[in-house]
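Two quick folds needed for the group meeting slides. Do the first one here.
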Amino acid sequence: MFTSFVRRVGLAVGIAAAALATGTPSKAQTIAEIEQKGRVTIGVLTGIPPYDTVDSSGAPDGFLVDLARLAAKDLGVEVEIVPVNNASRAAALESGRVDFLIAHMTATPERAKIFLMTNPYGAYEMRFVAAKDMPLSSLDDLKGKRVSVPKGSTQDVAVSGYGVEGLEVVRFDDDALAMQALISGQVDATAAVATVANDVIAKRSLDNLEVKSDVPIFTLYWSMAVRKNATELHQWLNNFIYYQEVTGALNRLHEKWVGVPIPGGKLPTF
């Protein structure tokens, strides 16, 4: 099972790398170049409340956007927020459309072959979400079920690698569409961040749904990502994340938008 999982990760990333090979990276990668440009362009994942929302003018807002604003402030430049989803975030970075990503990317070894991944700025628990009356106490309960996932995500790789007989993985462009597929009855379950799922269930009064706790998918961390040649920016972001954590700013932002501290206690470094 583990070997299958690793092979699928490698295949997914290999396809992504081939698709990105024709991109033309932006030149604004050193701190001096970003300062000279006077603006940093940051790709931010959208469609995953409570981590993101929109302001009164319809522009992206939320935890990730506030973190992007804080990074730009510490760089001493203006910020341009570029909304991305699971399917588009890697291409946006590799093509030079954005200078770096704050887009809920987990620092897998395969992704680290393509990008420089920072120390984590947040953590999450990935769980199955399904109807309350659907038994889900073991993987065998997924036999013959349809499960939605965001295309190319870590949960896509994980659920696809289970090898459960008759399990059909149904892929969508982002988390919101994968969740909507469950709500509309297109699938039997979805794989989602527990905090996000609980927020959707509460806000939309989906009393028939629940986050399943007996079969955890994984608990992982989110990192920022820069292009391979952006070593100075990568080091600066690691310093930025460390400083925001030790001063309490990261937890304050997380509590402001998500309602709870970042799960898992002290964030790891690597």
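Then this one, please, same format:
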Amino acid sequence: MNISPIAPFIKWAGGKRQLLPQISARLPENYHTYYEPFVGGGAVLFALCPECAVINDINGSLVNLYRQIKLSPEAIIDAVEQLDGEAETDRKVFYYAKRAAYNEKMMKGEYDVELAALFLYINKHCFNG
């Protein structure tokens, strides 16, 4: 059920956005569930907007981000807006502090809203983000 395409909200290496015409041409016209083993930025998923989808990726932080968006979208928006609002005049120092906080949470295995927001923030503010 293609309602209207949604653009990926995160940059991801190996994105399939350029391949959408070729991928779409090879999909069956009818299917019950869309399975995406390598969701990344979700270009194919968002272009198709299927009624039922199962997504996965090897990157646990990325999967956590999608899970938190599904479960707590308002909390993610609030957390990211807070990060953007906290950015000091020295953005480089702020970025590295947030990256250190992200790495610490990863070491502890704290897959939560804060980790998801930090992951998204780092993705958007890193080199080429």
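Slide caption for protein two: DSSP finds six helices and two strands in the chain.
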